[in-house]
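[Discussion] Sanity-checking designs against the backbone

I'm trying to build intuition for which residues belong where. Below is a structure token string of 479 positions. I'd appreciate it if someone posts a full sequence so I can compare it with mine line by line.
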């Protein structure tokens, strides 16, 4: 029976259904409820007709036996109302407020590069988070085909364009802020996962298509931006492959689980091979920079020295309050004399901060140039002490634990995998950023979700968090 044709069959049915759905506050489910109730009425009417009743009498009795329309509507409104998760929302807003406070604080120092524009993006992020929280899940589920087609089209164009630029001596376009693509690479994760779920009944097609898309994205980024995207590619690879594995293990994909695991393993191997092979840097040096920076540090300009510097300053941290440094120690850190004994090659046109040597008077003058973005947690420990910083870390940890628990509570399969992928990407960023703040930097710094500056990254992480919370919010609404 075509349920789509049942509503509107008679005025009696229309009036009954309108009275029911008038009590339901969440409008997107009204049509679904109308179709379900109309089908039920039609089934009862058919039973009464088989018992010998006339059509009009059978319809009237079927509607009467349904009960009071208003009472049914009130009951369904209670059953269908969206779930609320206000505590997680409050904590995410609190983290963004901490980020705003940190940005306002560092603007006091002339050596920092924070601006009012940087701070305003936190407010944009809050707005987008609430919009995504209320409308994001419904939107991405209904319009994912359109989003996916746009991604595939843009990906094919970029692959062709960047490949031409790679083999050509001409640089046709210079992207001045590749961080935008870094952030947008993470934002398309839920769209890819939604696509994978859409093809869940196509045997191995879901894993195969996802593998192809992810490998193409990694290849595209590596062709144009070399090792700048190693962190983003790592997060993309691990998030997508882990979510696919979860879908396989929980039986969301059609087919034998053992065969699906074998297909997943091949797909993961392909994505990993592309990730490793397209990296233009040296993996051994990348590993040493992360775990043994003293083996590869060459001068005070590279990230290895920043890691060594941060580790040394963290070792001087107090429980409460700023570390104590004399004027000679400040100047020694500023010139890097404390680590590099030979200063013959010191270039005074370059400094840890853009100030003159004689103006080194405070802690902020000796920190890496982008400390307000890349080293917010380390800066907090050095500036305010271990205990206040531990409180911030505990709040952030609580947010991610609650997000993970929220994902576990989602019953709807598509909502669960979407929220799983979004939260997984957020947690990976958090972990990579924290490792970097303790002197174990992997690749280029990613941003600390909700707390550190970064225009596009603030927007991206607001969308990811909003989608995850939105999936939980609509869990009792969507099938």
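Best answer:
Here's mine. Compare freely.
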């Amino acid at each position: 029976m075509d349920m789509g044709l049942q509503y509107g069959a008679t005025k009696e049915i229309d009036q009954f259904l309108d009275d029911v759905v008038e009590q339901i506050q969440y409008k997107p489910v009204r049509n679904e409820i109308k179709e379900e109730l109309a089908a039920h009425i039609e089934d009862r009417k058919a039973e009464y007709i088989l018992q010998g009743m006339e059509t009009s009498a059978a319809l009237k009795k079927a509607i009467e036996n349904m009960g009071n329309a208003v009472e049914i509507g009130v009951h369904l409104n209670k059953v269908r109302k969206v779930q609320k998760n206000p505590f997680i929302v409050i904590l995410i807003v609190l983290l963004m407020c901490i980020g705003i406070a940190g940005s306002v604080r560092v603007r006091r120092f002339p050596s920092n590069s924070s601006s009012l524009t940087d701070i305003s993006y936190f407010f944009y992020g809050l707005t987008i988070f609430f919009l995504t929280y209320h409308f994001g899940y419904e939107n991405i589920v209904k319009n994912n085909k359109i989003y996916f087609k746009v991604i595939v089209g843009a990906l094919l164009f970029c692959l062709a364009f960047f490949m031409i630029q790679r083999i050509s001596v001409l640089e046709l376009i210079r992207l001045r802020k590749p961080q935008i693509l870094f952030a947008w690479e993470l934002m398309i994760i839920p769209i890819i996962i939604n696509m994978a779920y859409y093809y869940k009944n196509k045997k191995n097609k879901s894993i195969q298509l996802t593998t192809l898309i992810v490998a193409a994205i990694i290849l595209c980024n590596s062709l144009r931006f070399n090792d700048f995207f190693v962190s983003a590619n790592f997060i993309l690879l691990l998030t997508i492959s882990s979510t696919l594995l979860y879908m396989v293990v929980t039986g969301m994909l059609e087919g034998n689980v053992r065969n699906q695991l074998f297909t997943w393993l091949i797909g993961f191997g392909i994505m990993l091979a592309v990730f490793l092979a397209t990296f233009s840097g040296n993996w051994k040096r990348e590993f040493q920079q992360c775990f043994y920076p003293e083996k590869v540090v060459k001068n005070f300009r590279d990230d290895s020295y920043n890691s060594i510097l941060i580790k040394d300053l963290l070792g001087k941290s107090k429980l409460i309050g700023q570390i104590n440094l004399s004027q000679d120690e400040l100047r020694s850190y500023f010139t890097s004399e404390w680590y590099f004994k030979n200063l013959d090659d010191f270039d005074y046109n370059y400094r840890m901060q853009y100030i003159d040597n004689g103006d080194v008077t405070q802690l902020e003058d000796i920190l890496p140039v982008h400390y307000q973005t890349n080293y917010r947690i380390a800066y907090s420990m050095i500036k305010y002490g271990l205990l206040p910083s531990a409180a911030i870390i505990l709040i952030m940890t609580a947010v991610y634990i609650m997000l993970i628990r929220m994902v576990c509570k989602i019953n709807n399969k598509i909502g669960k995998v979407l929220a799983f992928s979004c939260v997984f990407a957020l947690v990976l960023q958090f972990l990579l950023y924290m490792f970097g703040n303790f002197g174990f930097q992997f690749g280029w710094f990613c941003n600390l979700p909700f707390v550190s500056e970064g225009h596009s990254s603030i927007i991206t992480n607001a969308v990811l968090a909003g989608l995850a919370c939105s999936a939980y919010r609509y869990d009792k609404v969507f099938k």
